[in-house]
Amino acid sequence: MTEIAIKTLAKTLVSLALLAAALGAAPALADSIPSKDAGQHVGETTTVSGRAALTVMPSGEIYIDLDGQGESAPLAGYVSRWNRGRFQDLSALDGKMVEISGQIATFRDQPQIFLEDPAQIRAK
Questions:
Q1: DSSP per-residue codes, 92-115
Q2: Domain 29-123 sits in which CATH superfamily?
Q3: pTM for this structure?
Q4: pLDDT the model gives residue 3
Q5: What residues of the chain score a pLDDT lower than 70?
Q6: Sequence-ordered list of residues with C-beta below 8 angstroms from that of 117, at least 6 positions apart, any chain
Q7: How far apart are CA 81 and CA 86, in angstroms?
């Protein structure tokens, strides 16, 4: 192989590896689980569906609770005050059926998905 062919092959392999990594990191939007089952999937990256109830905190944080509000909600989507500017017009989702995608973690023993990208939430 010539040096040019080797460099071209190397660039192609790097591009394919980056694409595979990006696709692997993206939350799955298919086959959502109901919010009541979110606690059984802590540590997993998945999509959770439910009716949204928004709470905007004085600090600028936003909670998008599914199928309840506060501690009664089976899952909360959390938008930090630093990420808030990325999310436009979340109030339009209040009361609507939504899907939230990402890794389910816990905060104060409640299942939660940390939202950093608007693509992680969508109206159904």
A1: GGTTSEEEEEEEEEEETTEEEEE-
A2: Nucleic acid-binding proteins (2.40.50.140)
A3: 0.74
A4: 63
A5: 1-30
A6: 86
A7: 10
User: What residue has token string 């009716």?
Assistant: 51
Q: Cβ atoms within 10 A of the Cβ of 72, count?
A: 10
Query: DSSP letters of the chain?
Result: --HHHHHHHHHHHHHHHHHHHHHHHSPP-SS-EEGGGGGGGTT-EEEEEEEEEEEE-TTS-EEEEESSSGGGSSEEEEE-TTTGGGS--GGGGTTSEEEEEEEEEEETTEEEEE--SGGGEEE-
The two structure tokens encoding residue 66:
């599914």
Give the pLDDT confidence of 74-93 residue by residue, as tens digits.
Answer: 999 999 999 999 998 899 99
Residue 103 has a pLDDT of 98
Who's near 92: CB < 8 A, 6+ residues apart? 123
For 12, the token pair is 């192609």
